Amino acid sequence: MLAHLMEWLNLGVRWIHMIVGVAWIGASFYFVWLENNLNRSNPREGLSGDLWAIHGGGIYHLEKYKLAPPTMPENLHWFKWEAYSTWLSGVALLCVVFYANPTLYLLAPGSSLSGAEGVHIGLGSLFVGWFIYSFLCDSPLGKRPALLGVVLFVLLVAAAYGFSKIFSGRGAYLHVGAIMGTIMVGNVFRIIMPAQRALVAAIAENRTPDPSLPAKGLLRSRHNNYFTLPVLFIMISNHFPSTYGSEYNWLILAGIALLAVLVRHYFNTRHDSHRFAWTLPVAALGMLCLAYVTGPAQPPAKIVYQPLPGTAVGGHRADEKPPEPVAPPAQAEPAKVAGADFSKVHDVIQQRCSVCHSATPTSQLFSVAPAGVMFDTPEQIQQQAPRIKAQAITAPIMPLGNITQMTQQERDLVGAWIDQGAHIN
Protein backbone atom coordinates (compact mmCIF):
# COMPACT_ATOMS: atom_id res chain seq x y z
CA MET A 1 0.00 0.00 0.00
CA LEU A 2 2.85 2.40 0.79
CA ALA A 3 4.35 1.87 -2.67
CA HIS A 4 0.96 2.60 -4.23
CA LEU A 5 0.53 5.79 -2.21
CA MET A 6 4.05 6.94 -3.08
CA GLU A 7 3.35 6.35 -6.76
CA TRP A 8 0.26 8.56 -6.62
CA LEU A 9 2.08 11.18 -4.58
CA ASN A 10 4.79 11.17 -7.24
CA LEU A 11 2.14 11.55 -9.94
CA GLY A 12 0.40 14.43 -8.18
CA VAL A 13 3.54 16.41 -7.41
CA ARG A 14 5.01 15.78 -10.87
CA TRP A 15 1.79 16.91 -12.55
CA ILE A 16 1.66 20.11 -10.48
CA HIS A 17 5.32 20.77 -11.26
CA MET A 18 4.68 20.36 -14.97
CA ILE A 19 1.60 22.62 -14.97
CA VAL A 20 3.16 25.51 -13.09
CA GLY A 21 6.44 25.05 -14.97
CA VAL A 22 4.64 25.41 -18.29
CA ALA A 23 2.97 28.58 -16.98
CA TRP A 24 6.31 30.06 -15.86
CA ILE A 25 8.29 29.14 -18.95
CA GLY A 26 5.44 30.22 -21.20
CA ALA A 27 5.35 33.64 -19.54
CA SER A 28 9.13 33.93 -19.85
CA PHE A 29 9.07 33.11 -23.55
CA TYR A 30 6.17 35.46 -24.16
CA PHE A 31 7.68 38.51 -22.48
CA VAL A 32 11.06 38.03 -24.15
CA TRP A 33 9.25 37.76 -27.48
CA LEU A 34 7.20 40.84 -26.60
CA GLU A 35 10.30 42.84 -25.69
CA ASN A 36 12.02 41.82 -28.91
CA ASN A 37 9.06 42.65 -31.14
CA LEU A 38 8.01 46.05 -29.82
CA ASN A 39 7.57 48.71 -32.47
CA ARG A 40 10.09 51.31 -31.32
CA SER A 41 9.78 53.65 -34.29
CA ASN A 42 8.35 57.02 -33.26
CA PRO A 43 6.63 55.91 -30.02
CA ARG A 44 4.36 58.21 -28.05
CA GLU A 45 5.97 60.32 -25.35
CA GLY A 46 6.92 58.24 -22.35
CA LEU A 47 6.74 54.95 -24.26
CA SER A 48 9.58 52.77 -25.43
CA GLY A 49 7.38 50.94 -27.92
CA ASP A 50 4.09 49.20 -28.60
CA LEU A 51 2.75 46.11 -30.30
CA TRP A 52 -0.48 45.05 -31.94
CA ALA A 53 -1.47 41.39 -31.83
CA ILE A 54 -4.40 39.13 -32.55
CA HIS A 55 -5.16 35.96 -30.62
CA GLY A 56 -8.22 33.93 -29.78
CA GLY A 57 -10.53 36.08 -31.87
CA GLY A 58 -9.48 39.38 -30.28
CA ILE A 59 -7.10 42.23 -31.14
CA TYR A 60 -4.71 43.48 -28.47
CA HIS A 61 -2.69 46.68 -28.21
CA LEU A 62 0.22 46.50 -25.79
CA GLU A 63 2.41 49.43 -24.77
CA LYS A 64 5.64 49.50 -22.79
CA TYR A 65 6.64 52.59 -20.82
CA LYS A 66 10.23 53.71 -20.59
CA LEU A 67 9.89 53.64 -16.82
CA ALA A 68 6.28 53.93 -15.70
CA PRO A 69 2.99 55.68 -16.46
CA PRO A 70 2.23 59.00 -14.72
CA THR A 71 -0.20 57.19 -12.41
CA MET A 72 -0.38 53.54 -11.57
CA PRO A 73 -3.41 51.54 -12.74
CA GLU A 74 -5.79 50.16 -10.17
CA ASN A 75 -5.18 46.57 -11.24
CA LEU A 76 -1.58 45.62 -11.95
CA HIS A 77 -0.82 41.98 -12.73
CA TRP A 78 2.35 40.52 -11.22
CA PHE A 79 4.09 37.42 -12.55
CA LYS A 80 5.72 35.65 -9.63
CA TRP A 81 3.66 32.75 -8.33
CA GLU A 82 4.37 30.69 -11.43
CA ALA A 83 8.07 30.82 -10.53
CA TYR A 84 7.59 30.18 -6.82
CA SER A 85 5.17 27.30 -7.41
CA THR A 86 7.52 25.68 -9.92
CA TRP A 87 10.44 25.75 -7.51
CA LEU A 88 8.44 24.56 -4.51
CA SER A 89 6.88 21.70 -6.45
CA GLY A 90 10.30 20.85 -7.89
CA VAL A 91 11.85 20.57 -4.43
CA ALA A 92 8.86 18.49 -3.34
CA LEU A 93 9.49 16.20 -6.31
CA LEU A 94 13.15 15.84 -5.35
CA CYS A 95 12.02 14.78 -1.89
CA VAL A 96 9.45 12.28 -3.18
CA VAL A 97 11.62 10.72 -5.89
CA PHE A 98 15.19 10.99 -4.59
CA TYR A 99 15.33 11.96 -0.94
CA ALA A 100 12.66 9.57 0.35
CA ASN A 101 14.87 6.64 -0.69
CA PRO A 102 18.31 8.10 -1.46
CA THR A 103 20.26 4.84 -1.49
CA LEU A 104 18.02 3.52 -4.25
CA TYR A 105 17.46 6.54 -6.51
CA LEU A 106 19.95 9.27 -5.56
CA LEU A 107 23.31 7.67 -4.89
CA ALA A 108 25.41 5.83 -7.43
CA PRO A 109 25.49 2.05 -6.89
CA GLY A 110 28.27 1.19 -4.47
CA SER A 111 28.63 4.77 -3.27
CA SER A 112 30.46 5.20 0.03
CA LEU A 113 28.11 8.04 1.00
CA SER A 114 25.21 7.48 3.34
CA GLY A 115 21.72 8.41 2.25
CA ALA A 116 21.68 11.40 4.63
CA GLU A 117 25.00 12.65 3.27
CA GLY A 118 23.67 12.44 -0.28
CA VAL A 119 20.56 14.41 0.65
CA HIS A 120 22.63 17.09 2.40
CA ILE A 121 24.91 17.43 -0.63
CA GLY A 122 21.92 17.65 -2.95
CA LEU A 123 20.07 20.29 -0.97
CA GLY A 124 23.21 22.24 -0.15
CA SER A 125 24.21 22.42 -3.80
CA LEU A 126 21.02 24.32 -4.64
CA PHE A 127 21.85 27.20 -2.34
CA VAL A 128 25.60 27.16 -2.96
CA GLY A 129 24.85 27.37 -6.68
CA TRP A 130 22.61 30.40 -6.18
CA PHE A 131 25.15 32.28 -4.04
CA ILE A 132 27.99 31.65 -6.49
CA TYR A 133 25.83 32.80 -9.39
CA SER A 134 24.65 35.91 -7.54
CA PHE A 135 28.21 36.79 -6.53
CA LEU A 136 29.41 36.53 -10.12
CA CYS A 137 26.53 38.65 -11.43
CA ASP A 138 27.27 41.39 -8.89
CA SER A 139 31.01 41.28 -9.58
CA PRO A 140 32.71 43.19 -12.43
CA LEU A 141 32.14 40.05 -14.49
CA GLY A 142 28.44 40.90 -14.47
CA LYS A 143 29.15 43.82 -16.80
CA ARG A 144 30.48 41.43 -19.43
CA PRO A 145 27.47 39.21 -20.20
CA ALA A 146 29.15 36.97 -22.77
CA LEU A 147 32.12 36.16 -20.54
CA LEU A 148 29.79 35.68 -17.58
CA GLY A 149 27.80 33.19 -19.63
CA VAL A 150 30.94 31.19 -20.44
CA VAL A 151 31.99 31.11 -16.78
CA LEU A 152 28.53 29.99 -15.66
CA PHE A 153 28.49 27.26 -18.30
CA VAL A 154 31.88 25.94 -17.16
CA LEU A 155 30.77 25.93 -13.52
CA LEU A 156 27.56 24.04 -14.32
CA VAL A 157 29.51 21.47 -16.34
CA ALA A 158 31.88 21.09 -13.38
CA ALA A 159 28.87 20.54 -11.12
CA ALA A 160 27.52 17.90 -13.51
CA TYR A 161 30.89 16.13 -13.50
CA GLY A 162 31.07 16.19 -9.71
CA PHE A 163 27.52 14.92 -9.31
CA SER A 164 28.16 12.10 -11.79
CA LYS A 165 30.84 10.74 -9.45
CA ILE A 166 28.60 10.45 -6.39
CA PHE A 167 25.02 10.35 -7.67
CA SER A 168 23.18 8.08 -10.05
CA GLY A 169 22.90 9.39 -13.60
CA ARG A 170 19.34 10.53 -13.02
CA GLY A 171 20.27 12.07 -9.69
CA ALA A 172 23.17 13.97 -11.24
CA TYR A 173 21.07 15.37 -14.08
CA LEU A 174 18.16 16.37 -11.88
CA HIS A 175 20.41 18.19 -9.42
CA VAL A 176 22.05 20.21 -12.18
CA GLY A 177 18.54 21.13 -13.28
CA ALA A 178 17.58 21.92 -9.69
CA ILE A 179 20.55 24.29 -9.34
CA MET A 180 19.50 26.07 -12.52
CA GLY A 181 15.89 26.20 -11.33
CA THR A 182 17.00 27.64 -7.99
CA ILE A 183 19.01 30.31 -9.78
CA MET A 184 15.97 31.15 -11.89
CA VAL A 185 13.58 31.46 -8.96
CA GLY A 186 16.25 33.32 -6.98
CA ASN A 187 16.40 35.85 -9.79
CA VAL A 188 12.65 36.34 -9.55
CA PHE A 189 12.54 36.51 -5.75
CA ARG A 190 15.73 38.46 -5.04
CA ILE A 191 16.18 40.67 -8.11
CA ILE A 192 13.22 40.96 -10.46
CA MET A 193 10.42 41.33 -7.91
CA PRO A 194 12.31 43.83 -5.66
CA ALA A 195 13.10 45.92 -8.76
CA GLN A 196 9.44 45.94 -9.72
CA ARG A 197 8.33 46.82 -6.19
CA ALA A 198 10.83 49.69 -6.09
CA LEU A 199 9.49 50.96 -9.39
CA VAL A 200 5.89 50.90 -8.16
CA ALA A 201 6.86 52.52 -4.83
CA ALA A 202 8.73 55.35 -6.59
CA ILE A 203 5.70 56.12 -8.71
CA ALA A 204 3.39 56.05 -5.69
CA GLU A 205 5.72 58.48 -3.86
CA ASN A 206 6.05 60.70 -6.92
CA ARG A 207 9.78 60.01 -7.18
CA THR A 208 11.79 59.38 -10.32
CA PRO A 209 12.38 55.62 -10.48
CA ASP A 210 15.94 54.36 -10.55
CA PRO A 211 16.41 53.09 -14.14
CA SER A 212 19.19 50.71 -13.08
CA LEU A 213 16.80 48.45 -11.17
CA PRO A 214 14.55 47.52 -14.13
CA ALA A 215 17.68 47.06 -16.26
CA LYS A 216 19.12 44.65 -13.71
CA GLY A 217 15.83 42.78 -13.56
CA LEU A 218 15.73 42.53 -17.35
CA LEU A 219 19.26 41.07 -17.41
CA ARG A 220 18.35 38.38 -14.89
CA SER A 221 15.15 37.69 -16.80
CA ARG A 222 17.22 37.04 -19.91
CA HIS A 223 19.42 34.66 -17.95
CA ASN A 224 16.30 32.77 -16.94
CA ASN A 225 15.23 32.67 -20.56
CA TYR A 226 18.47 31.01 -21.67
CA PHE A 227 18.23 28.47 -18.85
CA THR A 228 14.78 27.26 -19.88
CA LEU A 229 15.64 24.86 -22.73
CA PRO A 230 18.43 23.04 -20.86
CA VAL A 231 16.13 22.72 -17.83
CA LEU A 232 13.33 21.37 -20.02
CA PHE A 233 15.68 18.73 -21.39
CA ILE A 234 16.71 17.70 -17.89
CA MET A 235 13.04 17.38 -16.92
CA ILE A 236 12.47 14.76 -19.63
CA SER A 237 15.94 13.18 -19.58
CA ASN A 238 14.93 10.34 -17.25
CA HIS A 239 13.15 8.77 -20.23
CA PHE A 240 16.41 8.50 -22.19
CA PRO A 241 18.99 6.28 -20.50
CA SER A 242 21.51 6.68 -23.32
CA THR A 243 22.08 10.21 -21.96
CA TYR A 244 22.15 10.01 -18.17
CA GLY A 245 23.23 6.35 -18.16
CA SER A 246 26.36 6.93 -20.22
CA GLU A 247 29.83 6.86 -18.69
CA TYR A 248 30.19 10.41 -20.01
CA ASN A 249 26.73 11.59 -18.99
CA TRP A 250 28.06 14.92 -17.74
CA LEU A 251 29.64 15.63 -21.13
CA ILE A 252 26.45 14.68 -22.96
CA LEU A 253 24.49 17.04 -20.72
CA ALA A 254 26.98 19.82 -21.46
CA GLY A 255 26.65 19.23 -25.19
CA ILE A 256 22.86 19.23 -25.21
CA ALA A 257 22.71 22.29 -22.95
CA LEU A 258 25.07 24.19 -25.25
CA LEU A 259 23.00 23.28 -28.31
CA ALA A 260 19.83 24.35 -26.49
CA VAL A 261 21.35 27.73 -25.65
CA LEU A 262 22.30 28.23 -29.30
CA VAL A 263 18.72 27.53 -30.38
CA ARG A 264 17.34 29.87 -27.73
CA HIS A 265 19.75 32.59 -28.84
CA TYR A 266 18.46 32.42 -32.39
CA PHE A 267 14.86 32.84 -31.27
CA ASN A 268 15.88 35.69 -28.97
CA THR A 269 17.62 37.59 -31.77
CA ARG A 270 15.74 36.74 -34.97
CA HIS A 271 13.61 39.91 -34.65
CA ASP A 272 16.75 41.93 -35.28
CA SER A 273 18.30 39.80 -38.01
CA HIS A 274 18.77 36.21 -39.04
CA ARG A 275 22.54 36.25 -38.67
CA PHE A 276 22.28 33.53 -36.02
CA ALA A 277 20.15 31.25 -38.19
CA TRP A 278 23.21 29.00 -38.51
CA THR A 279 22.61 27.87 -34.92
CA LEU A 280 19.60 25.77 -35.97
CA PRO A 281 21.39 23.43 -38.42
CA VAL A 282 24.40 23.34 -36.10
CA ALA A 283 22.15 22.27 -33.22
CA ALA A 284 20.51 19.60 -35.38
CA LEU A 285 23.90 18.30 -36.51
CA GLY A 286 25.12 18.36 -32.93
CA MET A 287 22.19 16.22 -31.78
CA LEU A 288 22.89 13.73 -34.57
CA CYS A 289 26.53 13.55 -33.49
CA LEU A 290 25.54 12.97 -29.87
CA ALA A 291 23.11 10.25 -30.94
CA TYR A 292 25.92 8.59 -32.90
CA VAL A 293 28.59 8.69 -30.20
CA THR A 294 26.20 7.43 -27.52
CA GLY A 295 25.06 4.47 -29.63
CA PRO A 296 26.11 0.87 -28.99
CA ALA A 297 29.52 -0.20 -30.26
CA GLN A 298 27.94 -2.71 -32.61
CA PRO A 299 24.32 -3.58 -33.37
CA PRO A 300 23.03 -6.87 -31.98
CA ALA A 301 22.00 -9.70 -34.23
CA LYS A 302 18.48 -9.51 -35.61
CA ILE A 303 15.98 -10.82 -33.10
CA VAL A 304 13.34 -13.21 -34.41
CA TYR A 305 10.48 -12.57 -32.04
CA GLN A 306 8.21 -15.33 -30.86
CA PRO A 307 4.53 -14.32 -30.62
CA LEU A 308 3.40 -13.46 -27.15
CA PRO A 309 0.94 -15.99 -25.75
CA GLY A 310 -2.51 -14.59 -25.20
CA THR A 311 -2.19 -14.79 -21.43
CA ALA A 312 0.96 -12.67 -21.55
CA VAL A 313 -1.03 -9.64 -22.65
CA GLY A 314 -4.35 -10.52 -21.15
CA GLY A 315 -5.96 -11.54 -24.46
CA HIS A 316 -6.59 -14.62 -26.57
CA ARG A 317 -6.34 -15.69 -30.19
CA ALA A 318 -9.41 -15.42 -32.37
CA ASP A 319 -9.74 -19.20 -32.71
CA GLU A 320 -9.57 -19.79 -28.98
CA LYS A 321 -12.19 -19.59 -26.31
CA PRO A 322 -11.36 -16.77 -23.90
CA PRO A 323 -9.76 -18.26 -20.79
CA GLU A 324 -11.29 -17.93 -17.39
CA PRO A 325 -9.74 -15.07 -15.38
CA VAL A 326 -6.95 -16.38 -13.20
CA ALA A 327 -4.40 -14.74 -10.99
CA PRO A 328 -1.08 -14.37 -12.84
CA PRO A 329 1.72 -16.58 -11.56
CA ALA A 330 4.34 -14.98 -9.39
CA GLN A 331 7.01 -16.38 -11.68
CA ALA A 332 6.77 -18.27 -14.94
CA GLU A 333 8.62 -21.50 -15.53
CA PRO A 334 11.65 -21.26 -17.82
CA ALA A 335 11.04 -22.17 -21.44
CA LYS A 336 12.22 -25.50 -22.75
CA VAL A 337 15.11 -24.36 -24.87
CA ALA A 338 17.88 -26.08 -26.72
CA GLY A 339 21.13 -25.28 -24.98
CA ALA A 340 21.78 -23.64 -21.67
CA ASP A 341 22.23 -20.00 -22.70
CA PHE A 342 18.66 -18.81 -22.34
CA SER A 343 18.01 -20.86 -19.23
CA LYS A 344 20.87 -19.02 -17.55
CA VAL A 345 19.62 -15.68 -18.85
CA HIS A 346 16.13 -16.54 -17.65
CA ASP A 347 17.46 -17.26 -14.16
CA VAL A 348 19.29 -13.92 -14.09
CA ILE A 349 16.22 -11.99 -15.23
CA GLN A 350 14.00 -13.70 -12.69
CA GLN A 351 16.42 -13.10 -9.82
CA ARG A 352 17.52 -9.56 -10.67
CA CYS A 353 14.66 -7.99 -12.64
CA SER A 354 11.35 -9.75 -12.07
CA VAL A 355 11.12 -8.69 -8.45
CA CYS A 356 9.78 -5.42 -9.89
CA HIS A 357 8.99 -6.21 -13.53
CA SER A 358 6.24 -8.75 -13.00
CA ALA A 359 2.47 -8.89 -13.03
CA THR A 360 2.82 -9.49 -9.30
CA PRO A 361 5.93 -7.62 -8.08
CA THR A 362 7.52 -8.97 -4.93
CA SER A 363 9.41 -5.72 -4.32
CA GLN A 364 7.94 -3.38 -1.74
CA LEU A 365 8.75 -0.44 -4.01
CA PHE A 366 6.11 -1.14 -6.64
CA SER A 367 2.54 -2.37 -6.63
CA VAL A 368 2.52 -2.81 -10.42
CA ALA A 369 5.27 -3.38 -12.97
CA PRO A 370 7.14 -0.11 -13.68
CA ALA A 371 6.25 1.26 -17.14
CA GLY A 372 4.16 -1.86 -17.68
CA VAL A 373 7.29 -3.89 -18.48
CA MET A 374 7.00 -7.51 -17.32
CA PHE A 375 9.39 -10.46 -17.56
CA ASP A 376 7.05 -13.24 -16.47
CA THR A 377 7.38 -15.30 -19.66
CA PRO A 378 10.25 -16.03 -22.06
CA GLU A 379 8.33 -14.25 -24.82
CA GLN A 380 8.02 -11.12 -22.73
CA ILE A 381 11.74 -11.19 -22.00
CA GLN A 382 12.52 -11.53 -25.70
CA GLN A 383 10.15 -8.70 -26.65
CA GLN A 384 11.94 -6.41 -24.21
CA ALA A 385 15.46 -7.48 -25.23
CA PRO A 386 16.40 -4.13 -26.87
CA ARG A 387 15.18 -2.28 -23.79
CA ILE A 388 17.09 -4.62 -21.49
CA LYS A 389 20.22 -4.04 -23.58
CA ALA A 390 19.83 -0.26 -23.38
CA GLN A 391 19.13 0.02 -19.66
CA ALA A 392 20.94 -2.91 -18.05
CA ILE A 393 23.89 -3.51 -20.37
CA THR A 394 24.86 -0.47 -22.46
CA ALA A 395 23.92 1.97 -19.69
CA PRO A 396 23.85 -0.12 -16.50
CA ILE A 397 21.17 1.92 -14.75
CA MET A 398 18.93 -1.04 -14.02
CA PRO A 399 18.15 -2.53 -11.57
CA LEU A 400 17.51 0.74 -9.75
CA GLY A 401 20.43 1.39 -7.45
CA ASN A 402 21.43 -2.19 -8.29
CA ILE A 403 19.23 -3.16 -5.38
CA THR A 404 19.21 -6.82 -6.48
CA GLN A 405 23.02 -6.87 -6.81
CA MET A 406 23.25 -7.77 -10.48
CA THR A 407 26.89 -8.62 -11.23
CA GLN A 408 28.93 -7.58 -14.23
CA GLN A 409 29.22 -11.23 -15.26
CA GLU A 410 25.43 -11.46 -15.34
CA ARG A 411 25.20 -8.30 -17.41
CA ASP A 412 27.75 -9.71 -19.84
CA LEU A 413 25.78 -12.95 -20.08
CA VAL A 414 22.51 -11.18 -20.87
CA GLY A 415 24.25 -8.82 -23.29
CA ALA A 416 25.86 -11.70 -25.17
CA TRP A 417 22.51 -13.48 -25.43
CA ILE A 418 20.91 -10.37 -26.94
CA ASP A 419 23.83 -9.78 -29.32
CA GLN A 420 23.46 -13.36 -30.59
CA GLY A 421 19.81 -12.80 -31.49
CA ALA A 422 17.96 -13.28 -28.17
CA HIS A 423 16.78 -16.78 -29.04
CA ILE A 424 14.46 -18.50 -26.59
CA ASN A 425 14.04 -21.83 -28.38
Automatic annotation (TrEMBL):
Protein name (database record): Urate oxidase N-terminal domain-containing protein
Record organism: Pseudomonas cannabina
A GO MF term: electron transfer activity
UniProt KW keywords: Membrane, Transmembrane, Transmembrane helix
TM ranges: 15-34, 87-107, 119-136, 148-167, 173-193, 226-242, 248-267, 276-295
Positions of the UniProt region annotated as Disordered: 313-332
The keyword Transmembrane helix belongs to this UniProt entry's keyword annotation: yes
Residues of the Urate oxidase N-terminal domain: 4-293
InterPro entries: Cyt_c-like_dom_sf (IPR036909), Urate_ox_N (IPR010389)
